[in-house]
Amino acid sequence: MCFFWLVLHNRPLTWDNLRRRGWSGPGVCIFCHFADETLIHLLFQCDFAKEVWRIICSTLRVDWQDSIDNTEGIVRHWMRTQKSHRSLIIFICWGLWRCRNAFIFENIVPNIQIICNRIMGYYNLFSNCNLSTLVKHRMVEPLKDLQYPIGFFDGAAQGQLGGVGCRLWISPNHFYNLWMGLEDCTNNCSEIIALWLCLYWAMYLGITDIWIMGDSKVVIDWYNHVAELHSILLQHWCRSIRNL
C-alpha cells in the first residue's frame, strides 16, 4: 500500500523522477528499451506491461481499458468500474515494479509468464484469505470416519516458481493450514518440502503418531526406500523427513 500511495503521487524513482533530482543514466524503459521510462509508461503503456495486463485481465475476465493518459485517471477509472477486483491493480503495479528492479539491480531478465504467475499467486492468496473456512465445511463430512490426526501435503512448480501447502486435521472440527512460496524448484522438490512442512508442524504441535497422505508416489517411494533418490539436495530433505 505504501508503494501504491507513491504511484498515486508519481513518486517512485523512475528515470524521469531521478533526472529531476540530478541523476544521470540511460533513462529508457528496461522492458521495451525504446521509450523514456516514466511511471505511466512503465506500469501501463509499455508493450510489456500491456501484455501483463492483458494476460491477467483475460484470465480473470476483467475488462481493461488503457486509453486514459494519466496514472490518477487510470486508477480512478479502475476503482469505479472493477468493484470485484479493485485490489488487482495494486498487485499488477507492484509486480511490474519488482520485475523492473530485479532487472536493474540483480540482472534478472524480465519474463512475462513468470511475472504473471507471481502476480496471480499473490492476488489469489489475498483474495482467498478466508477460503479455509469454506474448505473446512466441505471436507469435514468425508473425513469423519478416518483416524486422526491426519496430514495432507501437496506441492507444485512451474517455470521458476513453486509453492507448497499442507493441512493437519487434529479432529473433524480442528485443522491447521500451512503454505509457502518457493523459487527455482521442481515439482518433486516442492512435493518433498511440502511433506517436510507437514511433519515439522506436526512435531511442533507435539503430535507423535499421524497418518500422512499425498499424491506424489515418487516422494512417498523415496521416503519408504522403495525408489532410489539421486539428487543430493533432495536426499537432504528426505533425511530430514525421516528424522522427523
Written as H for each helix and E for each strand, in order along the chain, the element string is HHHHHHHHEEEHEHH
* Individual helix count: 11
Percent helix, as a range, is 40-55%
Bulk shape = elongated
How far do the termini sit from each other? Answer: 40 Å
Task: Flag low-confidence runs.
Answer: 130-142
What percentage of amino acids are in beta strands?
Answer: 5-15%
Q: What is the overall pLDDT average?
A: 84
Task: Give the strand line-up of the largest sheet.
Answer: 3-2-1-4
Helix and strand content put the structural class at alpha+beta
Radius of gyration: 23 Å
Main sheet summary? 4 strands, mixed
Number of domains: 2
Number of strands: 4
